[in-house]
Amino acid sequence: MQRLYQFSTNFIQALALISTGILFLGSFLFTCYATDMTTQQVLTRPDNPLINLLGMGAFALVLLVVCRMTLKYPAKCKPVLLALTMGWILVLGGLLILFGRTAPAADAWSVYSAAQALAEGDTSVIHPTDSYLSYYPQQIGLLAFFEPLIRLWNLLPIDLEPYHFIKCIYVALTCIIVWFQYKSIHLTVKSDTADCLYLLLAGANLPLIMYSSFVYSEIPSFAVMSMGIYYVLRMLEPGQASDAASHRLKDAGLSLTGLTLAVMLRKNSLILIIALVLVVLLESLSRKSAGLLLYAALCVVLAVSILPVTQKLYELRAGNTLKSGVPAMSYFAMGMQESSRGNGWYNGYNFNTYQESGMDTDIAVQISRDYIKERRAYFKEHPDYAASFYFYKFLSQWADGTYASRQATLATLGERHALIREIYDGTYSPCYIGFCNIYQSMLYLGSFLCFLHLWISKSPKRRHLYLYLGLIGAFGGFLFHMIWEANSRYIFLYSLLFLPYAAAGFDALFATLKRHRDQ
Fold it and tell me: Structural domain of residue 123, as residue ranges?
């Protein structure tokens, strides 16, 4: 078991270096972005390495200077920096609500409208063929999150759409993401500098702040996922108070609650759950811990049952049923197609195939399988085209530093403030794109430096597999979205998993530079 554990750790260490190195090169050499907010076509632009180096150097210098200023008195300055970061997110998030005026659209509007109908007592949205949920029943968990918030808002004598209230909740949840990631890096790295660097990187993450106005599943699902990851790290980190049985039970309960809710709110959270369960299983075998084995089993049971149970409760309430919806095979087929926005991006194939099959899952699956077979044969006959197709599919997702934050929050109700409008498709949009590209390159570079430090470090801590949990989850997302429907918005949450690694990486870099300077 120890040999298996060490082999797994060595493999993940090598994978971490290779994958973050590739991500850094992709982001450093290319930028993917959209200029036309109507077509939202993803463009790919080769970058000027010199300009990128200058931008990254300036970014690193700011990080270093602020860290030096705040670490003169870390006990006093760190809480202040934490409060400033939270305040910054709250203020910017509030300004976006007031002046950005983003409204739910597309899938987000469909789920929100269904929740609003249920909050008003209309259960007709639970229907096997005649509702949005007939096609996408996996959204039932997000609907279950929206409905009580809408009911609560409707009790107030305020004539505003409930989604304004939901956006306020999302800004608070964004702070919760930062809080639990901050606690996670403090727990595992144990460095004041790394803590400060994380807060600076989180505060500079403009897509994170933009997404706080996106009334969909990204922010709430990652907030509870961050909580779940923190408490599982408490269970796995040696020397914690959770070594006591009562604390272990509390940490396990809080972790399972967060992870289960993350799947309920966003089914793709299962990718991170799979990564976490694999890590916990290996840790349980290495430590010969029956408790961790039980935790992994409970995590699987809760993750796979939460959406079916939620759906069944709504079906009982409505006295009706929902179909299984658009099959996964249609998403895989769509991921192999060209689209007006980018390779593998949404083009309506999955929805149209299911609809044209008479909402018959078996027929839709067979049509999709036949298409996949044809497409694979074409790729085999044209390997150059296949390589180009997946190369640009990769770049369109992982080299877009904005993570489609403008496209996702584009829809408005009322007139958007002129300054914010310029960020979307006006004078300041190149500035936003350029900053996000530099930030993304720094994120990948910092993560690479973190894994490089762990690789060459003589510390026994580097042999702990659970330290690579976020990387394993991000790599799972990379593989999944290379064959699934593409969208840089889907990659946004995986990018957040790199934040603690980037902070740890720059902490190691600055410490190395200080040692060389002092010698």
Answer: 2-518
